[in-house]
Amino acid sequence: MEVEVRVFATLRKYLNEQGILQLRVEEGTTIRDLIKQLQLPEKEITIIMVNGVRGELDQILESGDRAAFFPPIGGG
Amino acid sequence: MEKIIRINMEDLSIKVEKIPKKYLNLGGRGLTSQIVADEVKPTCEPLGKYNKLIISPGLLTGSSAPSSGRLSVGAKSPLTGGIKESNSGGTAAQRLARLGIGALIIEGEGPKEKFYLLRISKNGQEILPADDLVGLTTYKVAHTLQEKYGKKAAVITIGPAGEMKMAMASIAITDLEGNAARHAGRGGLGAVMGAKGIKAIVLDDTGIEKVKPQNPEAFKEAARRFTKALTEHPVTGQGLPTYGTAVLVNIINEAGALPTRNFSTGRFDRAEKISGETMAQRAKERGGKMGHACHAGCVIKCSNAYHAENGEYITSGCEYETIWGFGSNCDIDDLDAIAQMDRLCDEIGIDTIETATTMGVAMEGGMLSFGDAQGIIRLLKEEILSGTTVGKMLGQGTAIVGKVLGVTRVPVVKGQSIPAYDPRGVKGNAVTYATSPMGADHTAGYGVTANILNVGGKVDPLKAEGQIELSRNLQVATAAIDSLGFCLFIAFAVLDKPECLDDIVQMVNAQYGVQWQVDDIIKLGQKILKTEIEFNKKAGFTVADDRLPEFFQEEALAPHNVVDDLTPEELDSVFNF
Asked: Which end of chain B is more exposed for a tag (fewer CB within 10 A), N or C?
C-alpha cells in the first residue's frame, strides 16, 4: 500500500531536502517499522503525527496515511 | 533592586523611593501587576491621567542566571481595558537591574503635544525635551540615542504609532546590536507611553558593577546546573538555536491548527515556503543569522537576523507569530515580504501579532485581497505610519476593524487578537485565550507544549479533556517565570525536568538570602493571577469575557473538522485555587 512520509528540521538530512517521500509498504507495517525501513534514527524523533494527529510507534499504518516525524522542537 | 523611580509627567518631577517591604519578593510581572493593582483605578481611562506605566526587570535580572534578562511593562491596556503585562527581551532590563531600579513608575497627565526623553545613569535621572526625536521611527531613535549616549546604552522607545496613541502600539527595546527589534508588543502599552509624553528612555549602567548575590558560591552552583539543563535539553539547546521559533510553521500546519486566511482553515498549502527550514536555509545562503540572542547571558539564542537576497539586513526577531500572521493568516507565501512587514511594524512601533490579525480581518472585510503582500506594505507605510484616518482606524486593532467592516469572523478575546494557534485545533491554548486576564495570549499558558510538542506530558489537542488543568498549571507557572525575569522558553527544559525548579529556587535564595521553596513559586504565580483577575473584575470584566468568539463554536476547522466545545462551567473553573 502507498503511504506518504514527511520529515522536518534536523531529520531532513536522513531523507531528502524537501522532506517528503511517497512509498510502498507492506500491509501491517507499523510506524516503528517505517522508521526502520527509512533508516531514520528513532531516538531523534520526538513527535509523530499520522494524518495530523498524534501517532504512536506501534500504530499500524493504513493505505494513504501521511506520517510526519519531528525532532524535539519548540517555540512560542 | 532597592529603588522605585517615580516620574510625574504633570510637573516633570522625579522621586527616588525606597522599595516598600511588601514588594521585596516581587519583580517583573509580579511587581508591575501588583503596582497597577495598588495604584491604578481599574475604571480609569487608559490614555488618561490615572493610568500608570510601570517598567520592571525580573527578580533575577541582572544576575548571572542564564536567560534572565526579560523586561515587564505593565499598565491598564488601551486595547483590552484590563490589566496588562507585556514582556520583552533586549538590553533594557539588565540595565535597570544594575542601576538598582526595581520599577519605573510613570504617572500623571501627559503633556499636550510635547514629548520627553528620560535619561538614567549612574549619576542619576533627568527628563529632557525630546523634540528632535518626535516623529522618528524606532530604529532611528535608538541609533540617534546610542550615538549621543554611547553604544552600550539601552534604549526603550515608542514609534510614531505610540505618539499617535494607537491601541496596537508597542514599546521597542534595543537588542545587542543596537537595533530596536525587540518589542513589548501586546496590549497597546506604546499608546500609554505616548499618552504620558515619553518618547524614549535611555539607560546607561557604565561604571556600575553586576548585581552580586548574597551567597556567590551557592548561586554559581545552581546557575551552573540550570545552564546545563538548558543547554542539554534538545529544544532549548538545539532546536531553537538552529531553526528558531519559525520551526513551528510546519509542525502546527501538520497538526492542522495553523490559522489560514483569517482563521477559516487549519492548513496552508504553502507552509514550507514560510517555514523555519526555509529561513535557516536563507540565513546560510544570504549571511543572515540563526542562533541570535536577544539579551546578554541568554544560552538559548532562539532569534534571528533576516537578510535580503543581496545580503542586506532587513530585520531581526522575525518570529513564528509574525511569519504566521502575515503569512498563512493573510494567504502570503513570500518570506521576504513578511520580513519587510516585520521591519515596518518594528519601525512604526506596532505589535506584529495584532497588526497581522488586523490585516487578516481587513482582507476578510474587503479592504484588500487575501494574498496582497504589497497591499499590506502600502497600508503600513502610507496609512498607519502616516497617521491617516484609515491608518488610525487600522491602528486600533482587530476588533475595531472587524466592527467597522462588518466582519463576524473576528478572532479576539477581551479585545486582543488570537495568536498563531487555532483554538479549535489546540484546545489547551483555547482555554488560555479565553481565560487569561491578559486577553487572547498564547504565552500566558502555552498549551501547545503538551498538546502538540510532547513537552511536559501529552494531552490530545482536539478534545476538551485535560485542557482546563493544563492551562491552569501553565498560567500559574508562566506568571511566576514572568516575575523572575526568565525567558519563558526555559519552560521547555523545566517542564521535562522538574528538578530545574529547585535550581531556580536556589538561585533566588542565594541572590537575596531568602528561603523560598518550590511551592513558593506556585504560590507566587497563583497570587499574581488572583491580583490580575481582581483588577479586571473591578474594571468591569465578567465571566462573559472569558469566552471565545462565537464562530469557533459554529464553524468546524478543517482538516480535522473540530469546533470549540469547551463549556462555560469548565472555563469558569480554571482559577479555582
From this structure: C
